[in-house]
Design goal:
alpha+beta; eight-stranded antiparallel sheet; three-stranded antiparallel sheet; 26 helices; flat
Length: 724
């Protein structure tokens, strides 16, 4: 629909003190990109801390910065409208039929086919509606025996047993990736890596076969012998180096063998032959040009390893010998240099776990080509991973995008329709009231710096629940009485949107007027609190003074008794003890009497002034006095309630509110519920534990009235007024 100028015919409604656009027609969504951003209620909002589908928020947030902005909202609406047969589908109840997917868009037929395939995988009829919950477990949408477009091939993808075995061998060696079905599979990179490493292993084995005589001096036993040689090589070379040094300078011989102090330290305790201190000693006694004994005179810590070296290396190469010269040792060691060099070139790959013959069979066969063809077939599947993601996105937009619009373009969920807005976290129950305007707060300090500009009475609470991380919430009290109510430390219950209850503890209060009625009584309550506090302080000070005098009296009495015992008789009262001064107390009572008289005189003067007025003027004077006392408080409350708005509360949470969203008194009353008896219920007022009423207040009032009346009669005022 458009007006004569060709522009779209927008419709607006007024709520919260500002105009909001109505988005209840599909055609409105088609023209949403034409709506002036100045008329949008919100310009950006965070993707977290909302009672909104997190996956949908992430899809709308295309740049992934954690904020949803106007261009991203427009893009999401445009993307969805182009792939649906009608934009009205976005405003319908959650659930997407494959028939609602437009065939006119370039990817429409593919999306519709994928939607029908998903229903088939889920075992539902083709005319069923796809719901967001259908995508909770994506593995159900990708059977492991069918191509799904992700390029990962599990074993179940092929009926060829031999090819399935190859897939298993690739997974067991170089590993793979998880298929969209949730099963492990191989992709192109894994297959290429496996066969590349297999060829490297075969090349290395072939090099070992070509120089087998030089590389393997002991044939198949070379590997074991090389290990025995490596176990003693450094120690043997250390021994011959010491012997050469002793031959160079005989004076060094004593220093190259262990000092006697070493043995002194070992001799004071039990010794184990494999101790580190023993193992560090030379392999045998050092002498100039002395051959290395192979059996006798060996360091006890090295006997086992030297025996392994003798039987595995020396005897197969040199026969049975009892000692080994430096030249013979060099000849033995060099025989294994080619083996060590060949081992250093061994490819570092788990493919070695497969037999060489099996690797050669795989490399020389066509297994690699067949696997790559199977992977290419999977990538070409119609129900590809990208297509399934697009269907999921469309289903989520159909279910949740309208909700986002009602909390972004407008705030109709908050002001109308009886829904909760996405920023309303739940309900806080505290002191016989329920608060509906409750938000999650990530940083209470930052939030509390800006939130008071909302003009709302705010309560911050820390909420805990077993098995859950603590959260912080903010509740706005927009109705009821709050005097001396929200003291930090009070406890309540918070019910979140999922129906879970949390223990809520008040940690911070931002006081603001709640109603004109409360503001009317506020001055009197403040005076009452002040008087009560002063009386409490006076009573406490008197109590402390009495206690101090009692303690001083007890101390003095104990001192006199002690002095009497030492002096044999009772002493006269100490100079510090003062007798009761009747004149002093008479003065105090006189002062009290004067004060009471002054108060009575003031009251009498006020009453006398009232009696000088005509009877109809008395209520006006009383009303004027009350207005003079309560007027400033009521005026301040009126101004504060008039500017009370939602914007600062949301802005403090990272929103950018583009309107002054007011919370007036009638709307605020709907956000805070006060306890009330159910309609039609009955109650009895008889309280067996109620305090018994005493008539002393009535007697006091009558006495005051009588005193004032006698005073006025004596002054002739009362008689003149009655006579007049």
């Amino acid at each position: 629909m458009s007006n004569g100028s060709g522009a779209h015919d927008w419709r607006f409604f007024r709520s919260g003190g500002f105009d909001q656009v109505a988005l209840d027609r599909g055609v409105d969504l088609l023209h949403l990109d034409e709506l002036d951003p100045k008329l949008w209620t919100v310009l950006n909002c965070p993707t977290t801390g909302l009672e909104f589908d997190a996956r949908t928020a992430a899809l709308v947030d295309t740049d992934g910065d954690g904020q949803i902005r106007v261009p991203e909202i427009r893009a999401a609406v445009t993307w969805a409208c182009r792939r649906l047969t009608s934009p009205d589908v976005l405003l319908a109840e959650p659930g997407l039929s494959p028939d609602a997917v437009s065939s006119e868009s370039p990817e429409g037929p593919r999306l519709r086919a994928a939607a029908q395939a998903i229903l088939e995988y889920l075992g539902r009829e083709g005319d069923s509606l796809l719901q967001v919950s259908d995508f909770a477990d994506m593995t159900r949408l990708f059977p492991n025996a069918k191509p799904n477009g992700d390029g990962v091939v599990p074993v179940a993808m092929t009926d060829d047993e031999a090819l399935g075995t190859v897939i298993g061998e690739v997974l067991a060696t170089v590993g793979g990736s998880e298929d969209r079905s949730g099963k492990p599979g191989v992709d192109a990179d894994a297959v290429a890596a496996f066969f590349r490493q297999a060829r490297a292993v075969l090349t290395w084995h072939d090099a070992g076969e070509e120089g087998a005589e030089e590389i393997r001096p002991l044939g198949d036993d070379t590997s074991t012998a090389a290990g025995a040689l490596a176990a003693v090589r450094k120690k043997v070379e250390d021994y011959f180096a010491r012997c050469r040094l002793a031959a160079f300078d005989p004076r060094a011989t004593g220093h190259l063998n262990p000092a006697e102090s070493v043995y002194d330290a070992l001799g004071d305790r039990a010794i184990a032959s494999d101790e580190a201190e023993v193992e560090a000693l030379p392999l045998s006694a050092v002498e100039a040009d002395r051959p290395l004994p192979l059996q006798d005179g060996i360091n006890p810590a090295w006997v086992g390893r030297m025996e392994e070296f003798r039987t595995r290396v020396v005897e197969p190469l040199l026969g049975e010998v009892d000692e080994l010269s430096a030249e013979a040792w060099a000849g033995v060691a060099v025989r294994f240099d080619r083996w060590s060099a060949w081992q250093a070139e061994k490819p570092d790959t788990p493919v070695h776990a497969l037999p060489v013959d099996r690797l050669r069979e795989l490399v020389e066969g066509d297994a690699e080509e067949r696997l790559q063809e199977l992977i290419a077939l999977d990538l070409e599947a119609e129900t590809s991973a990208a297509t399934i993601d697009a269907v999921e996105r469309l289903v989520r937009y159909q279910a949740h995008l309208a909700t986002l619009l009602r909390n972004f373009v407008t705030l109709s969920d908050f002001y109308r329709d009886g829904r909760k807005a996405v920023f309303q976290a739940g309900t806080l129950y505290l002191d016989q009231r329920s608060c509906e305007l409750v938000m999650r707060v990530a940083d209470m300090g930052r939030h509390a710096a800006m939130a008071p500009f909302s003009g709302c009475y705010l309560v911050y609470c820390t909420c805990v629940r077993s098995g859950e991380a603590p959260i912080t919430i903010l509740a706005a009290l927009t109705g009821g009485e709050v005097d001396e109510l929200m003291v930090p430390g009070r406890n309540g219950v918070f019910w979140d949107r999922e129906g879970r209850d949390w223990k809520a503890t008040v940690v911070k209060v931002v006081e603001q007027p709640v109603s004109i009625q409360q503001a009317f009584w506020a001055p009197y309550r403040r005076v009452a609190r002040f008087v009560e506090e002063q009386l409490r302080k006076f009573a406490a000070s008197r109590d402390e003074a009495v206690e101090a005098r009692a303690q001083a009296g007890v101390g003095e009495t104990a001192g006199r008794m002690q002095g009497a015992g030492e002096g044999g008789g009772a002493d006269a009262p100490s100079a510090g003890a003062q007798a009761f001064d009747i004149a002093k107390f008479a003065g105090i009572f006189a002062a009290i009497g004067l004060a009471v008289g002054a108060i009575g005189a003031a009251l009498a003067a006020v009453v006398a002034g009232l009696f000088t007025l005509s009877l109809w003027q008395v209520p006006l004077v009383i009303a004027g006095v009350i207005l003079l006392i309560s007027g400033p408080s009521m005026l301040l409350a009126f101004l504060t309630l008039r500017r009370r708005n939602l914007g600062p509360l949301l802005d403090a949470n990272g929103w950018a509110v583009n309107a002054r969203a007011r919370i007036n008194v009638p709307f605020g009353a709907s956000l805070t519920g006060v306890a009330a008896l159910p309609e039609g219920s009955s109650r009895t007022l008889a309280d067996p534990f109620a305090e018994k009423r005493r008539p002393w207040r009535l007697w006091l009032l009558m006495a005051v009235i009588l005193v004032i009346a006698l005073f006025l009669w004596a002054q002739g005022v009362l008689g003149g007024w009655l006579g007049g």
